[in-house]
Amino acid sequence: MDAFWSGSVATFLDTSPAAIVGQLAETQIRHFRISEAQQLRAWGEEIALLRDALPAIPASATWHLLLEYPLMRLGRRADAILLTPHAIIVLEFKVGAGLATSADQAQAEDYALDLQDFHAGCRHHPIVPVVVATEATPRPASLPLLLGGTVAPVQTTNSASLAKLLTQIASACPRQVPKLDAAAWRAAPYRPVPTIIEAARMLYARNAVAEIASARADATNLSLTSDAILRAVAEARRERARIVVFVTGIPGAGKTLCGLNTCFSGGEDSHVAFLTGNPTLVHVLREALARDAADQGMNKRAAQQRMESTIQALPYFRDHYIKHAEPPAESVIVIDEAQRCWSREQAVRKSRDRAVRLDDSEPGLLLDIMARHTNGAVIVCLVGGGQEIHDGEGGLAGWGEALAQRPGWRGLAAPDTLTAADPRQRLPALHGMRVDPSLHLAVPVRAIRNACGPAWVDAVLAGDAERARAIARAAGGAPFLLTRSLAELRSGLRMLCRGHRRAGLLASSGGKRLRAVGLGVELPHMEPVAVAQWFLDRWPDVRASDALEMVATEFSCQGLELDYAGLCWDADLIHDPVAGGWIARAFRGSRWTRLRSGEAVANQINTYRVLMTRARYETILFVPCGNPEDQTRPPAIYDQIAEFLLACGAEWVPLEQPVTEPAPHPAEFALI
Fold this sequence. Notes:
The protein is α/β, with parallel strands linked by helices. The chain contains 23 helices and 23 strands.
């Protein structure tokens, strides 16, 4: 991924500003966020500032300069990056500004964090984000100890003091690591790991899944899986066949990303729909893509209409084609979390009082609907193991039963689907079933800095503290912190969040006694506007996730993610120190009752699996202290949960001193 202009500082100073601006304009392929004339003028002013500042730094002649460096995940470009022998300096210019606002600083910090996480050349040297507000009042620099591979606090300066600040940064850098090689830095891979929302935007803009798959080389499986799906689609169209493709994977491995790639890879006329029973995912993806299209100059209503046909609520699709006998408009459908489709018993029970009554399982109904196509049809089932969170979800076994009754369909699945230990997650050995190892995603791509999260969560929820400790120890620590204080939870999340990283509070829908500590407001997951605001808007909008006021439950967050999560653990899943396992409970009336049904217990454990695997970086686990005067919240119950999590390798939130009141959100202040 090339910068639009790159060269040594000496070359930069020897090249005419007009030539550099001309090259930037010639290679510019994105829409200007401002008018073309304004953009050209801004480039000219930024180049003039650098030409004034750099000659005042004798050592800078050997530095390397990159202008308009593209950062794919953010959909933005860094104004300038200076590669010095011992540091990477990211410059964000605000020409004419008399103040470096908090938003300006978050923007520069976001660029630096993106490089730290996704650019392999930034692992051993400090990264220093700088905002140049040209007309700001000068202030003395406050440089911390600059450590290799870390992002320093944002520095601010003006046009007159830029050279002085750059000199101070160069002098403050550690000398114990090898000098940064600009050519090697340029050649190092930059592989961003987008959020689901970012990925949808990027795929909609026609980026290939291989370009955005993962920051780690061992996640090539993501591209192989996408290719296998597209081959099945081509086979169905070529041979007029009906094919079901089962894509399995651990939480955070990229199943939804593969599904979205299938939807967007064929362009406007691909006739592919993404179906999900998760209303939150529908609302958020539709709104995010519509907003993005509007930002690029498209009519927002037109964008919303296209999103409504591409990303659909599975129940509406199902009911429409039960009422109408014609073939669907789409010859390919992608079903998110397909293991959650209803069994026949659940479908009949849930539709008894509805306008459209169901007489078969959802897999059977969907297979029959898509079989109306005579020129071939494909159903891509995205299957998350251990993600069933509601009664009546048939799992892979439900799809197997439906396929056994419909021999006209071909099956394609990962080998482990035929041998899974859990009967709900096992396909029968159907005639003509083919296996393809690339259809299982085993590498977590959601985790940015520590990939041990899903394995650690599995061990914790299996009650195996020894295995969990071993996983954490091998990874240099699990990405899970612990606190017993709600104020510390909020302060810890705000301490961790830098730039535009997003945090949010999560809780089980069964955590009814969290209201006693002030967490009684749940995100209404069936309200499209509220959901979109929580996941897409930012503080100081109090409806946004990072206001840390409303909690999202498993129904709100499944399929989506946060950078940092605060999971509020209640007594609906408690640890039994004698038996060494978990006890699932439900709050009914004024007391807790133990769940006895095997399915209900498994669903409750899966609820916490969903909640514990939403974060891309760290999760802070908040376990309340309880109240000895409240029989529904005995302290001993919560103490046992906290002690077990610590025994598994979770660590205390590293705050320097206890917090008793909610800390102010950093975005409340416009720092200079």
